[in-house]
C-alpha cells in the first residue's frame, strides 16, 4: 500500500469515527478491515510451511485470525451490504495483503 493509500485510509477512519464521514469512507474502512482480518484469505498449513519452514506458530496464528474474522463478520453483517457491495468488498480484499 502506498503512502498516499495509507493516508486515504487513515483519513477515512478518522472521519468515520468522528461522525463526519464522507461518501465512500465506510467502504474504504470495510475494505481495510477485510484485508486486516484475513476474512477472505484463510491460511493453509502448506502455505505456512512454505513460508516459515515449520509448523510453529501456525495454530496460534489461526486462532488470532479466527477472532479477527469473527469481528469483521459482525461489522459486515451490521452494515447491511447488497450482494454487489459484498462481491466488490471481497474483490478489493483479495487484491493484496494488508500491511501493518
Average pLDDT over all residues:
87
Number of individual domains: 1
Radius of gyration from CA coordinates? 15 Å
| SS elements, strand count | 0
The unreliable regions are none
Envelope shape: elongated
What is the helix content? over 70%
Give the strand content.
under 5%
Largest sheet: none
Distance between the termini: 10 Å
> What string gives the helices and strands in order?
HHHHH
Describe the structure.
The chain is mainly alpha-helical and 100 residues long. The chain has one domain (3-95). The protein is 70% helix and 0% strand. The chain has 5 helices and no strands. The chain has helices at 3-17, 25-37, 45-52, 58-78, 83-95. α2 packs across α5. The longest helix is centred in the last third of the chain and has 21 residues, at 58-78. The N and C termini lie close together (10 Å). The mean pLDDT is 87.
Amino acid at each position: 500500500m502506498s503512502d498516499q493509500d495509507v493516508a486515504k485510509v487513515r483519513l477515512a477512519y478518522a472521519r468515520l469515527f468522528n461522525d463526519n464521514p464522507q461518501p465512500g469512507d465506510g467502504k474504504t474502512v470495510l475494505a481495510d478491515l477485510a484485508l486486516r482480518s484475513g476474512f477472505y484469505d484463510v491460511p493453509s498449513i502448506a502455505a505456512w510451511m512454505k513460508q516459515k519452514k515449520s509448523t510453529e506458530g501456525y495454530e496460534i496464528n489461526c486462532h488470532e485470525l479466527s477472532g479477527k474474522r469473527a469481528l469483521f463478520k459482525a461489522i459486515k453483517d451490521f452494515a447491511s451490504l447488497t450482494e454487489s457491495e459484498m462481491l466488490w468488498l471481497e474483490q478489493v480484499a483479495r487484491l493484496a495483503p494488508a500491511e501493518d
